[in-house]
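Here is one chain, start to finish.
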Amino acid sequence: MGAWELLLVGVVIALGLCGVLVPGAPGSWLVWAAVLWWALKDPRPVAWAVLVGATGVLLLSLVVRWALPPRRLRASGTTPRLAVYAGTGAVLGFVLLPVIGALPGFLAGIYLHERLRLGGHGEAMSGLRTTMRSGGSSVLAELFACLLIAGTWLGAVLWG
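Its structure:
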């Protein structure tokens, strides 16, 4: 697979990661479809292993999201700007502290947004709890799964 095709797969994965944060967008399926495309175009055992792992992670995230409360983010007053802060925090956390950094990064992004919007620590913590209870945990589960898949794909491309 050529460099341009790998770049295009990476762009589709990045669009899928952004799509996770947009309500109604099939972000996780875009990430999976990009990995499927890569595995079909580059049929090495590592590519198929990444595809099988991605499928398993997405199915597991579906089960976890099914067990969590339904998404009611709009009703809680969340804005698209909050999604940007949370997503940026998760990606930065994932890069700075591989894999597990996405969790505190996501929460820190929401906290920062609420702190800037509301002003105080107590109000920001209350806004963070409200956001997580109203569906933020579901978004976090889906985003974390997609970040795992993206990181695994990138690792396989660079070292495999």
